[in-house]
């Protein structure tokens, strides 16, 4: 590949600067190898974390990030070359979920070194297979191994693990156990004193290698960096983004422009809530769900209300309706969500009819609550959690909306959800179909990920509604849930 003179001059400038510094950054090495490299803020962050890792004795780093954003090439190729350039005697073990992927990674590193002689590295002529090779004149090099492959007798001055479990294996406990045994019994035993380790992966399961390292390898001081596709909380976002802002993608359109917000939104709709949460946001949850299982929810497929000309909705055949509001504004656009649900009850069955879930400021929250109350006039009871921003809202609306009741929960979030979970498990909680409510997939996903998901606002509004509608009346009356109750004996008109 011919390199334009201006690009070549820039490369020589980087090499000259590197001679007066510690070494080239992984990003600079990437540009030397391929001048078309797109350096994004996410890759800037990864570069900084990799340099921190090299400077930390016995450093341990885990990176999760959406697919096709350059993380594998940056870590497996550019960072390994960075380490070899810094110390050509570094013996690197590069692992992957199978030998084929490991071989490909090893060959990628080797070809890159051969393509950029300016780095001053050369592959040994008598040791040059794609999965195992050394540098000319040095003991350093790369051994590429698939998961489960033995590395007995092979010392490691650095270990790089790229996607140790494939997508098809992610839900297999046997595969996850095999991966863990590979790390604990084989790879980690080969580490030299002070050797760094980096694990990069797209997360599919909460019990994957990164999940187990955080839970079980607590003494090692693992630093976990998750870069979500979309900012969830500006206060903790690793890229310093605003709420809801998508990452600048390394993937480009044909005209060289980065992926647009509309393209990100399309991708989000295509993959669905569970895949988006795990693969793109780095928040995996069990396939069946955690405390609240995915297959517990009953679904209704036709609207249970009529809509009048003025836009108001009137529920048909319900004993009562209420609005449950979990509020989390801060006066400006907040990192947390406001969740306001409209619920109806038929004897011992609860139906989620409508919901607003957005990141809102104080004024926006007031507007949406007032609008929802007008839309559902039968919901005369409005439950508002009396903490955080709840008191401010209650004070503001006390004379404008009737039926606002402050709720002061005394139990923790998990304990409250555990109390109503049997209602969902036994088929007494109904959700609208995706055709009726496009937001219901995100609702189910948040509840399935609870209590480990990034947000729990929809769980909280659900807890308030079901406690007031179902649990308290049952406890007060000493009744058991009876699925044979005749709804017609209890319904009210509209």
UniProtKB/TrEMBL annotation:
Domain Terminase large subunit gp17-like C-terminal intervals: 324-466
The keyword RNA-binding is assigned to this record: no
InterPro entries: Phage_terminase_lsu-like_C (IPR006517), Terminase_6C (IPR035421)
Keywords per UniProt: Viral release from host cell
Pfam families according to UniProt: Terminase_6C (PF17289), Terminase_6N (PF03237)
Superkingdom assignment: Bacteria
Entry's transmembrane regions: none
Name by which UniProt lists this protein: Phage terminase large subunit-like protein
């Amino acid at each position: 590949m011919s390199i334009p003179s201006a690009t070549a001059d820039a490369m020589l400038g980087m090499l000259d600067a590197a001679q007066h510094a510690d070494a080239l950054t992984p990003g600079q090495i990437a540009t030397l190898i391929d001048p078309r490299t797109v350096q994004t803020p996410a890759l800037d962050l990864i570069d900084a974390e990799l340099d921190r890792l090299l400077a930390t004795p016995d450093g341990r780093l885990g990176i999760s990030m959406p697919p096709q954003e350059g993380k594998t090439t940056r870590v497996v190729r550019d960072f390994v070359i960075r380490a070899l350039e810094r110390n050509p005697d570094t013996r690197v073990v590069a692992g992957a979920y199978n030998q084929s992927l490991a071989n490909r990674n090893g060959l990628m590193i080797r070809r890159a070194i051969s393509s950029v002689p300016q780095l001053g590295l050369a592959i040994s002529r008598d040791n040059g297979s794609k999965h195992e090779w050394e540098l000319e004149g040095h003991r350093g090099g790369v051994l590429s191994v698939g998961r489960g492959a033995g590395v007995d007798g092979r010392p490691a001055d650095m270990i790089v693990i790229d996607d140790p479990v494939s997508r098809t294996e992610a839900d297999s406990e046997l595969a996850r156990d095999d991966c863990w045994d590979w790390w604990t019994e084989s790879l980690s035993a080969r580490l030299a004193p002070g050797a760094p380790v980096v694990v990069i992966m797209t997360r599919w399961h909460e019990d994957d290698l990164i999940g187990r390292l955080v839970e079980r390898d607590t003494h090692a001081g693992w630093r976990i960096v998750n870069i979500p596709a979309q900012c969830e909380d500006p206060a903790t976002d690793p890229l310093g983004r605003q709420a809801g802002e998508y990452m600048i993608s390394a993937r480009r359109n044909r005209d060289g422009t980065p992926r647009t917000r509309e393209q990100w939104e399309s991708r989000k709709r295509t993959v669905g809530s569970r895949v988006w949460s795990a693969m793109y946001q780095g928040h995996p949850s069990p396939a069946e769900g955690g405390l609240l299982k995915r297959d517990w929810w009953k679904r209704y497929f036709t609207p249970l209300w009529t809509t009048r000309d003025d836009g108001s909705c009137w529920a048909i055949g319900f004993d009562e309706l209420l609005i449950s509001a979990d509020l989390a504004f801060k006066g400006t656009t907040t990192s947390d969500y406001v969740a306001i649900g409209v619920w109806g009850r038929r004897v011992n069955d609860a139906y989620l009819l409508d919901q607003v879930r957005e990141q809102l400021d104080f004024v926006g929250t007031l507007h949406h609550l007032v609008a929802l109350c007008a839309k559902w006039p039968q919901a005369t009871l409005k439950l508002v959690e009396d903490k955080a921003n709840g008191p401010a809202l209650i004070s503001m609306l006390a004379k404008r909306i009737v039926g606002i009741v402050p709720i002061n929960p005394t139990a923790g979030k998990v304990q409250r959800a555990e109390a109503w979970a049997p209602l969902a498990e036994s088929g007494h909680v109904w959700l609208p179909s995706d055709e009726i409510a496009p937001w219901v997939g995100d609702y189910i996903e948040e509840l399935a990920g609870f209590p480990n998901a990034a947000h729990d606002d929809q769980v909280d509004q659900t807890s308030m509604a079901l406690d007031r509608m179902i649990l308290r009346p049952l406890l007060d009356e000493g009744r058991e849930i009876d699925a044979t109750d005749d709804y017609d004996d209890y319904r009210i008109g509209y």
